[in-house]
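Figure S7 source data.
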Amino acid sequence: MTANSQWNGQFSCFDLVAKTAECSHTIVHVGELAIGGGSFVVMAGPCAVESERQLLETAEAVAAAGARVLRGGAYKPRSSPYSFQGLGVEGLKLLSKARKQTGLAIVTEVMSERDVEVIAEYADIMQVGTRSMENYSLLEALGRCGRPVLLKRGMTARLEELLQSAQIIAASGNPEIILCERGIRTFETATRNTLDIAAVPVLKTVSRLPVIVDPSHAAGVRSLVPVLSRAAAVVGADGLLVEVHPDPEKALSDGMQSLAFDEFEDMMCDLRRYVAIPPALEDVRPRLLVAGGTH
Ligand code: PEP
Ligand code: MN
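Tokens for the predicted phosphoenolpyruvate complex:
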């Protein structure tokens, strides 16, 4: 922030999504589901929609284990043009079939402004990936899409920048936003990204928006996912976004970090006692709130 800006005042660059005396938190409603209203909402499914069988089996398994939202990319941001790019509209149709079959809500990624309309026809929640957090024309289009947005933190973005991106969506007409911490780039290579666990209490303190954690893209390996999920629950996250696959070794993307069905089920059981611990957020006063901001 600049020297004379205030996080919560008239100069604020994210006042529309800031926590205020009048509005301490927003609840994002997706059908019967309330995200940010005190319950811990787990969104789970494959990195990419690969086939009808893969998706429907996964949907059944994650629903039985207690997930409330099915994730799955139909449009995939891949760093190589030779990698699987996703099934596109075909993938969206499979997601909507899975919703019909299981009652799970659907979250799926939108990469381009061009695809907003078609994805909004099928999805319940529009996911903005880490690479798109600064795609401002996409954010503006999502402000008019009529669906809640799951906004992932850019892998090199500060929290203030994440909140500014949320502000763009809100200023474009859509206050239904869920923030997602998914790990950031640091010098550490032992994990795929560095999970910034402090992002959760910081965001929950300065912002009114629900905050979830994606332990899969932070970890990069499945063995770390359950313990990072525990951490997310304990620091007060409103939920998780987790990758699950019927046969992770054969996944077309992100198999190494995807949980098998039994591992996901075990994790969901394990998480119960951590979710029950009330987060200690009363005295959190992040630097973002201190006069002079973060610089
Ligand atoms: C994903 O959720 O599959 C994904 C591509 O995530 P991210 O944008 O965080 O890399
Ligand atoms: Mn993935």
